[in-house]
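Kindly draft a polypeptide, keeping tokens residue-aligned:

***
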Amino acid sequence: MKSSRARLRIVHAIDSMAAFGGTELNAVRTLEHLAGNHTCEVFTLNSRGSMLERYQRSKIPVSVFPVSSLVGAGAVVQVRRMARRLHEDHVDVVHAHDVYTNLLVVLAARMARVRVVIASKRWTRTLQRRHSYTSLVSYAMAHRILVNSSEVGRSATVQDHVSPRKIAVIPNFVDDTLLKA
């Protein structure tokens, strides 16, 4: 039975296709489940890595916007390219998953006037100073900050000065098929 709800156009953004840890796996698992009911795509800053093949097998399009540094003309060019694509494709939701995409893709989404812009925080430790500053900026631009635990939410409030009203706690995705005996 098909849902009567409208299909959303959703972009998830991750720094790279490398399978470093939970962030990359959480993003691909979430999109695999959303793709049947919504139009989904991934923006990445670096296409190298084993996760690219998984997105391709799931028929989730991947667009690469190569960025090697948060500063410089290259980053500005890619933010403008992303903003143009988000606007032209009438994207409804952008969910950035990492430090770099939190800043660059959230900025592009705000420039494109995307309806819902989500940045993520999945850590409680204090980041490098430059990343702390980028987090402050990206959290201020985002409509919501998605955290994976109440402790991370408290960290966002205390360390990053995020209003508790902006925080949404959603635990990491668990693939229950892996738990079946």
In short: The chain is about 40% helix and 20% strand. Residues 73-88 form the longest helix (16 residues). Helices lie at 22-34, 51-57, 73-88, 99-111, 129-141, 150-159.
